[in-house]
Write a structure and sequence with these properties.
The protein has 385 residues and is of the alpha/beta class. It has eleven helices and 14 strands. It has helices at 3-9, 12-15, 22-26, 37-49, 82-93, 112-116, 128-141, 174-180, 204-222, 274-285, 377-384; strands at 29-33, 53-57, 98-102, 120-123, 145-151, 154-160, 231-236, 241-246, 262-264, 290-302, 309-315, 334-341, 362-367, 370-375. The longest helix has 19 residues, at 204-222.
């Protein structure tokens, strides 16, 4: 069969559906957060349906326990990166779709620009803090967040629209908020070990059902259909039932953030020097600008007991709490942490990437109470080139 005929006939059955808009799907970019069992179903579905561009983000690797519920993984993939294997397998299902992956942490390695240049995000995550971060970034980017979760014999698909109804954080209890950050110490360095030692049970049948619901919600949105935000569809495998529920919006929830008015820097990447962006912001804002990195960055440790110093150069959240102890004398070391700069610092001549700023990030510059938001758009353009 010729490529032209294949392209015409591939989506024939779904294009027969009332209200279907294949051109809208073909022009869309969808970010899939996570590449585990639930996201395997979503990635497979989106690829087969002809989404134009799909970006998959995951930092984990495949182990044997994944194979019973991941349609895109095989025995030969054990030990390999989930995101890469999922993208390569989905590309074989539909070579017409452009698939890319980021093998990294959603909290530290994916700039807000990747959200802003996507139409929506579908999440299949097992971490509350990651889901909260994704929900907050979707709100800042002004795009929907379709969030899925599973438990032993059930699951749910939830829809969150920026600025409308409940957000993901509205659904968190006080206990949830505590558990979301329990792997961080009071110093905010990462604690080692599993969060609570438990491994959640899951089946591929539940993953396929919840993944299907998420896919349909996303497709409906892209085709211009009506999907209510702040709602969830809850599935019970034991009872073979589904029901819809409205998620209450918490009035004082701090996560209802307005969409940002962003200046896109088409030629800028995170390889540019921090001091260069400070100069641009100072000129445009009419004063000495402060550049906020958007994260706490650990320059290094210094020990007052023995005088030993060590450069680290990593986001604080990536550093294990055990690193605080001096390797020479065992005493707690002082940390040199920055989160902003004015361009006069010796480290201001470093590339933004060397200060922990991920590709495509949106950075805040301020002069007094005047703010401007700058996107490193060049990273996003190069990524999809």
């Amino acid at each position: 069969m010729s490529k032209e005929r294949l392209s015409t006939e591939r989506y024939d059955r779904q294009e027969r559906l009332p209200g279907w808009n294949q051109s809208a799907l073909s022009s869309a970019c969808v970010l899939v957060a996570g590449a585990g069992g639930l996201s395997n179903e979503v990635i497979k579905n989106l690829a087969l349906m002809g989404i134009g561009r799909i970006l998959v983000v995951d930092f984990d690797t495949i182990d044997a326990s994944n194979l019973s519920r991941t349609v895109l993984f095989s025995d030969a993939d054990i030990g390999l990166a989930k995101a890469r294997v999922a993208v390569e397998a989905a590309a074989r299902l539909n070579p017409a779709v452009r698939l890319r992956y980021i093998e990294g942490d959603l909290l530290y390695d994916v700039g807000l620009g990747f959200y802003r240049h996507s139409r929506l995000v579908v999440g299949g995550l097992d971490s509350l803090v990651a889901r909260s971060s994704v929900g907050a970034n979707c709100a800042l980017a002004g795009i929907p967040f379709f969030d899925g979760g599973m438990w032993e014999l059930g699951g749910e698909a939830r829809v969150f629209y920026a600025g409308e109804g409940a957000c993901f954080d509205c659904s968190l209890s006080d206990d949830d908020r505590l558990r979301a950050f329990e792997r961080r110490s009071c110093t905010m360095f990462r604690r080692g070990g599993a969060a609570d030692g438990r491994v959640m049970a899951a089946t591929v049948s539940t993953a396929s059902i919840i993944g299907g619901l998420l896919t349909h919600a996303a497709i409906n949105f892209l085709c211009g259909g009506q999907t209510d935000g702040g709602e969830a569809v809850v599935y019970s495998a034991q009872r073979m039932t589904m029901h819809r529920t409205t998620l209450p919006r918490t009035p004082d929830c701090p996560s209802h953030r307005p969409c940002l008015d962003v200046t896109e820097l088409e030629q800028w990447t995170n390889r540019r020097r921090a001091a260069d962006l400070v100069r641009v912001a100072s000129s445009e804002l009419g004063g000495a600008a402060i550049l906020e990195l958007g994260r706490d960055f650990l320059l290094g440790f210094s020990c007052q007991e023995c005088g030993r110093s060590e450069e680290v150069n990593a986001p604080v959240g990536k550093v294990n709490e055990s690193a605080v102890a001096c390797p020479s004398c065992g005493a707690p070391r002082g940390a040199r942490v920055i989160s902003r700069l004015d361009g006069s610092e010796p480290y201001a001549d470093r590339a933004l990437a060397d200060l922990g700023v991920p590709p495509g990030e949106v950075l805040t510059a301020r002069v007094g109470d005047r703010l401007r938001f700058y996107e490193l758009t060049g990273d996003v353009r190069a990524f999809w080139a």
